[in-house]
Write a structure and sequence with these properties.
The chain is mainly alpha-helical and about 140 residues long. It is built from 6 helices and no strands. It is elongated, with a radius of gyration of 24 Å. The relative contact order is 0.08. Keywords: Activator, DNA-binding, Mercuric resistance, Mercury, Metal-binding, Repressor, Transcription, Transcription regulation.
Length: about 140
């Protein structure tokens, strides 16, 4: 099998990028990845640049960017639009900070309820169950 950097089959491409073939096709459908031409009587071939692009998408997803935002980042990829990319990242950071604040409130509420549960003994009403009924 030919695995030259510019001659990867879709299966070899998916393996090199660490995803499955369906992910490649999905990214193509979403416009995040170009579908290469199919030479007459042959199969499509992918390049190392395609592998790098999929890895970029996966890295952006791990940072919490959705596919639409990743598409915007890819359009800004030439490096001349750093302020626009920074604005997208700033929006993502605001979202993450809001989620962290929510999680901190959830942690405090659950910690309080668990503590109340441990403090009650016998056949009394469970503070956790009672609190959930009140909400």
């Amino acid at each position: 099998m030919n695995t030259e950097p510019d001659s990867l089959t879709i299966g070899a491409f998916a393996k090199a990028a660490g995803v499955n073939v369906e992910t490649i096709r999905f990214y193509q459908l979403k416009g995040l990845l170009a579908t290469p031409d199919r030479p007459y009587g042959s199969i499509r071939r992918y390049s190392g640049a395609d592998v790098a692009r999929v890895r970029f998408v996966k890295a952006a997803q791990r940072l919490g960017f959705n596919l639409d935002e990743i598409g915007q980042l890819l359009r800004l990829e030439d490096g001349t639009h750093c302020s626009e990319a920074a604005e997208l990242a700033s929006q993502r950071l605001d979202d993450v900070q809001a989620k962290l604040a929510d999680l901190t409130r959830i942690e405090a509420a659950l910690s309080k309820l668990v503590g109340e549960c441990h403090a009650h003994q016998g056949n009394v009403s469970c503070p956790l169950i009672a609190a959930l009924h009140c909400r």
